[in-house]
C-alpha cells in the first residue's frame, strides 16, 4: 500500500511539473509577456520597460525564469492582482467558497439522482424507463449549460418569478433561506450534466456486476433478491464510481464556471472571467494553475481512496 | 442450403455495419438532422430576401411569425433566420475544422506514443495527462483572451484543447495492434516505421477514430458557442450561434426568441452529432459497445 501511494505521488509530482511548464508557456504567450499590462497602458517609456524587465529578472534565460517562477509557486508566492494589489492566493481563496458550495450541492444532487437512475436502468434494461433515461442523458449532455441557464432564468425568474435571476444572496438579507433560494437554479443547472454522466457510468458499472458469477452463485444459494442487489451487487458496482468522481472533477469545475457566468455567482469562474476582462493576468494564471492542481489532487485522492477500499488495485 | 440463403448470412463488414447502424434510429435521425442543418446553412441564405448583417432599426424586436421575418428580428432589426443560417455556416465549419485539426494532432501523438512506447511514449502520454488536468473551458478562455479573436484563432484554440482524448484512444489501439502478425509481417518486409504506423496500424484503428471524431465535432460546437457567447470567439457583425446569444441575456424579458432560436440550433446540432457517434460506435465495432 505504501509503495502504491508513493508511486502515485511521484507520478502526480511529475505531472505538476509538466502542468506548471504549460502554465508558464501560456503566461509568455501573452502579447508583451508578463509585462503586457504596463506595455498596454502607454504610461511607461521604453527605458522604463527595460528597467522593469531587468528588475523583475525577465531578461534572464527562460529555463532560469521558469525555475524561479516554479519555486515561488511552491512557496505560495503567486504574484499580485493588477486590479487591487491583493495577492493572487488571497483573491482566489475569497472566491473559492462560493464555487465549492455550488459544486458540492450539484454533486450531491447528481450522485443521488444519477446513481438511482443508473441502477434502475441496469436492473430493468431496455425498459421504457431505461430507454428514456438513456436518451434523456444524451440530450442533457448536448444542451449548452449556459443556454440551459438562460432558459431556466427565463422560465423561473422572468415568467414565474419563483427564483432570483442571479447572485448568491439578496443585498441586505443573506439569511440561510435566502442563500438556499439563490442556490437552487445554478445548482440544478450544473447538476443536469453531472446527473447524466453519473447515470451512464452507474448503469454500465451495475450491468457489469450483475452478470458476474458470484451474483449467480448468490441466487443459486437462494438468497433473497433485495439482499443480492444491496449487499453483493451495489457494493461492488459503487466502487468504480470513486474513479468516476475523480475523472468527473475537471468537467464539474468547468461546468461551475459556465453556470457562474450565467447566474452572476460570485465564485472562481466569475472571478476568472472578470480577470480576463481586466487583463489581470496574474489572477487568470493563478486560477488556471489552481484549478489544474485541484484536478491533480482530486484524481490522486480518488486513486488512493480506491486502493484503500479495493485491495485488488494495490497489487497491479 | 441455397446460395441465396448463404448470401444473406455472409455480409461484408461494411454491409453488417450499415445494418447495425440502420437499426439505431436516433443515430439515423441525427445524420438526417445534420444534413438538413448543413444544407440549410449552406443554401438557405440564397433563398432568403434578407441579409444577415443588414440593419433595419425601424423593424427592431419584431417577434417571430409576425410578418416577413419568420423568426423575428434582433435588437438592430437584423433578420434572425438569416443570422441563424449564416451563424450555422460559421459554427458548423468551426466545429468540423477544429475536429480535423484535433484528429491530426491526436493521431500523430497517439501513433508515435503507442508505436515507440518506452521513454517517447511515456513523455507524450504524460503531456496528454498534464493538458487534461486543466478544465477545458478555463484553458480555452485563457488562451482566447491572450490572443486576437477571430474564426481561425477560435478554431485552432478549440483543436488545441480537444486533441488529448483522441491521442489516448489511438495510443491504446496502436500499442496493441503493433504486436499483431500483419504489423510484424510489415516490419519483416522492411517497411519503414512511419509507413507501418500510418499505413498499417492507424487504418486498422479507424473505427474508434471515426467515433471519436464524431463526438469531437459535438464538443467543438459546444466550446465555440460558449467562447463566442462570452465575446472571446467569433466577433460581430459576423454571426455564430454562440455570439447570437451574447446579447440575448439582456433582452431576455422583452425578446426571449433571441435566446431560443440559436440555443435550439446548438442543442439540435450537438445532440445529432452525439447520437450519430453513438450509432457509429454500435455499428462499426460491436465489441466497443458499452452495455
Automatic annotation (TrEMBL), chain A:
<dbReference type="GO" id="GO:0055085">
    <property type="term" value="P:transmembrane transport"/>
</dbReference>
<comment type="similarity">
    <text>Belongs to the binding-protein-dependent transport system permease family.</text>
</comment>
<keyword id="KW-0472">Membrane</keyword>
<keyword id="KW-0812">Transmembrane</keyword>
<dbReference type="InterPro" id="IPR000515">
    <property type="entry name" value="MetI-like"/>
</dbReference>
<feature type="transmembrane region" description="Helical">
    <location>
        <begin position="12"/>
        <end position="30"/>
    </location>
</feature>
<feature type="domain" description="ABC transmembrane type-1">
    <location>
        <begin position="96"/>
        <end position="306"/>
    </location>
</feature>
<keyword id="KW-0813">Transport</keyword>
<dbReference type="InterPro" id="IPR035906">
    <property type="entry name" value="MetI-like_sf"/>
</dbReference>
<feature type="transmembrane region" description="Helical">
    <location>
        <begin position="102"/>
        <end position="123"/>
    </location>
</feature>
<keyword id="KW-1133">Transmembrane helix</keyword>
<dbReference type="GO" id="GO:0005886">
    <property type="term" value="C:plasma membrane"/>
</dbReference>
<protein>
    <submittedName>
        <fullName>ABC transporter permease</fullName>
    </submittedName>
</protein>
<dbReference type="Pfam" id="PF19300">
    <property type="entry name" value="BPD_transp_1_N"/>
</dbReference>
<feature type="transmembrane region" description="Helical">
    <location>
        <begin position="176"/>
        <end position="198"/>
    </location>
</feature>
<dbReference type="Pfam" id="PF00528">
    <property type="entry name" value="BPD_transp_1"/>
</dbReference>
<feature type="transmembrane region" description="Helical">
    <location>
        <begin position="283"/>
        <end position="309"/>
    </location>
</feature>
<feature type="transmembrane region" description="Helical">
    <location>
        <begin position="237"/>
        <end position="263"/>
    </location>
</feature>
<feature type="transmembrane region" description="Helical">
    <location>
        <begin position="135"/>
        <end position="156"/>
    </location>
</feature>
<keyword id="KW-1003">Cell membrane</keyword>
<dbReference type="InterPro" id="IPR045621">
    <property type="entry name" value="BPD_transp_1_N"/>
</dbReference>
Automatic annotation (TrEMBL), chain B:
<dbReference type="GO" id="GO:0005886">
    <property type="term" value="C:plasma membrane"/>
</dbReference>
<feature type="transmembrane region" description="Helical">
    <location>
        <begin position="90"/>
        <end position="115"/>
    </location>
</feature>
<dbReference type="GO" id="GO:0055085">
    <property type="term" value="P:transmembrane transport"/>
</dbReference>
<dbReference type="InterPro" id="IPR025966">
    <property type="entry name" value="OppC_N"/>
</dbReference>
<dbReference type="Pfam" id="PF12911">
    <property type="entry name" value="OppC_N"/>
</dbReference>
<feature type="transmembrane region" description="Helical">
    <location>
        <begin position="201"/>
        <end position="222"/>
    </location>
</feature>
<dbReference type="GO" id="GO:0015833">
    <property type="term" value="P:peptide transport"/>
</dbReference>
<keyword id="KW-0571">Peptide transport</keyword>
<keyword id="KW-1003">Cell membrane</keyword>
<dbReference type="InterPro" id="IPR000515">
    <property type="entry name" value="MetI-like"/>
</dbReference>
<dbReference type="GO" id="GO:0015031">
    <property type="term" value="P:protein transport"/>
</dbReference>
<keyword id="KW-0653">Protein transport</keyword>
<keyword id="KW-0472">Membrane</keyword>
<protein>
    <submittedName>
        <fullName>ABC transporter permease</fullName>
    </submittedName>
</protein>
<dbReference type="Pfam" id="PF00528">
    <property type="entry name" value="BPD_transp_1"/>
</dbReference>
<dbReference type="InterPro" id="IPR050366">
    <property type="entry name" value="BP-dependent_transpt_permease"/>
</dbReference>
<dbReference type="InterPro" id="IPR035906">
    <property type="entry name" value="MetI-like_sf"/>
</dbReference>
<keyword id="KW-0813">Transport</keyword>
<feature type="transmembrane region" description="Helical">
    <location>
        <begin position="127"/>
        <end position="146"/>
    </location>
</feature>
<keyword id="KW-1133">Transmembrane helix</keyword>
<keyword id="KW-0812">Transmembrane</keyword>
<feature type="domain" description="ABC transmembrane type-1">
    <location>
        <begin position="88"/>
        <end position="277"/>
    </location>
</feature>
